[in-house]
Design goal:
The chain starts with a helix and ends with a helix. The chain is 73% helix and 0% strand. The protein is mainly α. 34% of the residues are buried.
Length: 187
């Protein structure tokens, strides 16, 4: 069962990465003046941005709890920092979504930014590009460089976290922008 859940989380991670690439392409198209895909996306998710972030952060939170509590993987120091950035997103986006308070989107943006930075650093440590700190070595067996999972040849726990943070950032950014209906001029 544990392996099946790990594969499911890895598949969700790959699907999230595909979505993140699509969102990045839509954003780049927007920057060069091609507004159609961006407008369609904004209208499609308008009012649901916080719910989407709640869903993404809930899956990430549940996945991290699964890894530590069910699979018995010991979280390293960097994993804890990533959790510090992800777990509050779950609670706060649920409360903000229930209250329909889109203003929270802009205040929550730093959490996925910092979390993504920690995840990227964790990937560098995990792949031997950067030497792990001594604190990493005492925080978990093998330290922060331990690859507890490696599905599809590249999907590791920090890869999943980075994917979650990227998606949370993208949808929080969409929610922080003025609603498409608010940008339409009324005569």
């Amino acid at each position: 069962m544990t392996h099946d859940v790990i594969v499911l989380l890895a598949v969700l991670g790959v699907a999230g990465q595909v979505l993140a690439v699509v969102l990045l392409l839509v954003g780049l198209a927007w920057l060069v003046g091609l507004r159609g895909p961006g407008e369609w996306l904004r209208q499609a998710v308008e009012g649901y941005e916080l719910w989407i972030v709640f869903l993404i952060s809930s899956i990430a939170t549940g996945g991290s709890l699964f890894f530590s509590e069910i699979a018995h993987f010991i979280p390293c120091e960097l994993c804890w920092y990533q959790r510090i950035c992800m777990y509050p997103l779950t609670i706060v986006t649920l409360l903000a979504a229930l209250a329909n308070d889109r203003r929270m989107c802009r205040y929550l943006l730093p959490l996925p930014v910092v979390g993504a930075g920690v995840s990227a650093y964790h990937l560098l440590v995990e792949n031997g590009v950067v030497e792990q700190a001594r604190a990493c070595l005492i925080s978990a067996p093998g330290g922060c460089a331990t690859k507890w999972i490696e599905e599809f040849g590249y999907v590791t726990i920090p890869t999943l976290a980075l994917t979650g943070f990227a998606l949370c950032f993208a949808f929080l950014l969409l929610g922080a922008l003025p609603a498409p209906s608010a940008t339409v001029s009324r005569s």
